[in-house]
Design brief:
By secondary structure, the chain is mainly alpha-helical. Helix content is 50%, strand content 6%. The chain has helices at residues 14-27, 45-55, 65-68, 74-85, 101-107, 109-112, 123-134, 140-150, 163-170, 199-222, 230-238, 243-249, 251-257, 271-290, 324-333, 346-354, 363-376, 398-405, 416-433, 439-448, 451-466, and strands at residues 3-10, 32-33, 38-39, 56-63, 92-96, 117-118.
């Protein structure tokens, strides 16, 4: 752990001055280290200074009668001055406590030659002078650190390598500013503040980059996805500093990363915002419908313009009149030009929907999404076509090949090898998703709902259209 500053002092001065100075600096969000620098007879001043500067950006040395009474060897005092002179910046800040310039000159002329703060000016005055050194104007990292502290996040000092990741992330979105902007932030990423020229703008951007990389890594680690129970999603949002703000100001992103939060009763703190978003979307789309606009009509069940936008369709009583495949596709992988959302293979989402773990979904929503997965027809897997790390084996892809060979559902044969392929892949889904159902139960549900037959027919229709 690095610190902004350490305070080297005589132990006798801790209660008299040092503790008050340290507490005042800490109130200004300066990380202070001073307990280990209470010098006693026999201690090495130079060793103390070297230790302090190895873990701190700056050092304060309180020169007082008690400090001078230690009678430091001349080489120790020269070492202190040499350490200061070896840097272009004032790394050592002397403070004179109850001593005069004459006393310092008599004790060590080299020390008297250095600009020093006067403790007699008062702690607050000393603090303001120290801040000019520790927190120089023009440092975007200092701005970022102060912003994070104001949000309740406690980062290390600005010289720590820890900051590199956030700085790199601020420039990581090569698509920023283009129509594909949303695709470049990463899963659970949101647009960062403008990358402006001022120190304040840069600092604000870095601060949010810090928070964003934190909750993005946490989302990966805790597997916060479209199929996570809404209560867990909201716990994740509420316990990630700054995330509630980003979600509220970028509701469309939240609806993409966690579409389950758009369902009535599953929106937590965002219920009113999603209600307002649905009303706005319905009003906008109703104006299109009244003019008999064909906008989006290919996606609906009645051939008219949708009743609302895709991202809010799960909140609409009629799912916006979208065909189930459209919303199932959005649920699993979001918009074509939208943020990255997919975490599992498509088949894993399907297996989850068939499992008991999906029963927190309202009945109509669960049925609608299952129908959508059938109609969408992209759930099959091949030997070398996996998002996740499913360990392929000699049977992997047997189902896909059997479907490809079948001209109609009647031609399909559920051979032992095909069945083994299904069970092996479903077993993997059960393991990575922590499902309670047995593989046999899930395979039976999969076959009973005729996913295979529907996919064969979908492929058949596709071949006819291409002729």
């Amino acid at each position: 752990m690095l610190h902004d500053i350490f305070i080297s002092h005589a132990s006798e001065d801790k209660d008299k001055y040092v503790r008050g100075l340290a507490e005042a600096l800490e109130k200004e969000n300066v990380a202070v280290w001073y307990d280990e620098f209470s010098l006693k007879p026999g201690d090495s001043l130079r060793r103390s200074i070297d230790l302090g500067l190895s873990k701190s950006r700056f050092g304060i040395v309180v020169l007082s009668p008690s400090f001078l009474a230690k009678k430091w060897p001349e080489w120790e005092l020269d070492g202190l001055v040499q350490r200061q002179n070896s840097s272009n910046d004032p790394v050592i800040i002397p403070v004179w406590l109850d001593v005069s310039a004459k006393e310092i000159i008599n004790y060590s002329p080299s020390l008297a030659d250095k600009y020093a703060l006067q403790a007699s000016a008062g702690v607050q005055s000393n603090v303001q002078e120290i801040l000019k050194v520790v927190k120089p104007q023009g440092s975007s990292l200092v701005v970022a650190r102060d912003r994070l502290l104001s949000l309740g996040y406690n980062p290390p000092v600005v010289t720590d390598d820890w900051w590199h990741k956030a700085i790199e992330y601020t420039g990581s979105n090569e698509l920023e500013g283009t129509f594909q902007d949303a695709m470049g932030w990463g899963r659970w990423g949101f647009p960062l503040p403008e990358n402006g020229p001022s120190t304040a703008q840069k600092g604000e951007r870095i601060a949010w980059a810090v928070l964003q990389t934190e909750w993005m890594e946490r989302a990966e680690r805790e597997q916060i996805t479209q199929i996570t129970h809404p209560d867990i999603v909201h716990d994740f949002i509420n316990s990630s500093i700054g995330l509630e703000d980003r979600c509220g100001n970028n509701l469309h992103y939240l609806a993409t990363y966690a579409p389950q939060t758009t369902i009535r009763g599953c929106s937590g703190l965002f219920e009113e915002q999603f209600d307002a978003a649905l009303r706005w979307s319905q009003q906008k789309n109703n104006e299109r419908r009244q003019t008999n606009s064909k906008y989006g009509s290919a996606l609906t069940t009645d051939g008219t313009s949708p009743r609302c936008d895709e991202f809010i369709a799960l909140r609409d009583d009629n799912f916006g009149f979208y065909g189930p495949a459209t919303i199932a596709c959005f649920f699993v992988q979001g918009h074509l030009m939208g943020p990255e959302v997919k975490f599992y293979d498509t088949i894993d989402y399907l297996v989850w929907m068939l499992s008991d773990q999906s029963y927190w979904l309202p009945k109509d929503h669960r049925s609608y999404l299952i129908d959508g997965m059938k109609q969408w027809g992209t759930w099959d897997w091949e030997e070398y076509d996996n998002w996740t790390h499913f360990p392929s084996n000699k049977d992997t892809g047997a189902l896909s090949k059997a479907i490809l060979k079948s001209k109609s559902p009647k031609d399909f044969k559920l051979t032992p090898r095909v069945l083994k392929d299904i069970k092996t892949r479903f077993q993997y889904s059960v393991e990575i998703l922590g499902l309670d159902n047995s593989v046999e139960e899930l395979v039976d549900a999969f076959i009973e709902k005729e996913f295979i037959s529907d996919l064969i027919l979908k492929r058949k229709r596709g071949r006819k259209r291409r002729k």
